[in-house]
Amino acid sequence: MKSLQVVTPHMECIFNCPFCIAKGHRHNNIFINNYNLNFDLWKSNLIKVIKSNDDLKYIVITGTNEPMQSKDCVSNIIDIVRKTDKDIQIELQTHYYKTDEIYDRIDVVAYSISDIRLLDKIKPMGKIQRYVLIMTDSYNNYSLTKILELIPKTVKQVTFKKLIDSNGVNKEIDDYIQKHSINTETLNKLKKDIDEYHGNISIRLDLECMKCEGRYKIFREDGMVYDNWED
Ligand code: SF4
Description:
The chain is of the alpha/beta class. The chain has six helices and nine strands.
């Protein structure tokens, strides 16, 4: 396992993104919150997972709500990972655009941005700054060149992420995604432009971000490792 997604304890999200796939799981994100109820168990399990996976290179801090709502947990994960294996790269996935000193302790701060009008409004932080562009219709008819012009020059990694529906679990989200995904013409043009891009920004297109197999495992607030988001 090269990558582990560590999930902060679930709570109602401060954002209410209409495409939120976290609201599209049959388990409704209900897991025992051992981070709060049994911190020692949660911590020792996390350390065990890190130590028993020599090939682990990346810890991605994420959530089924905004992870910065549990800043204490983000901070604890950073401390535990740094003490256990200093070579592991830590990434945070966030919609929280305000500056925060905790971002200085993270290797990659990945800002999820679903509205193109925000690209030039954020002051990105982190040793490596990544923009994760959530492909809503706000990106329609924009070329790769135009999008890159809007992104601050300090951002060195850009991921284009396709919206993923809940496959019927949450009709409201699925309807939104059907109506507000980027159009096929723009997506195809972006795919072609990304293939042909040879500039100094690392750019990738993620068409299946929720697919874990062969990519990553998940460590939840109950202190257990899961193979996929539906388990
Ligand atoms: S910030 Fe993330 S978890 Fe919260 S509503 Fe938006 S997509 Fe869902």
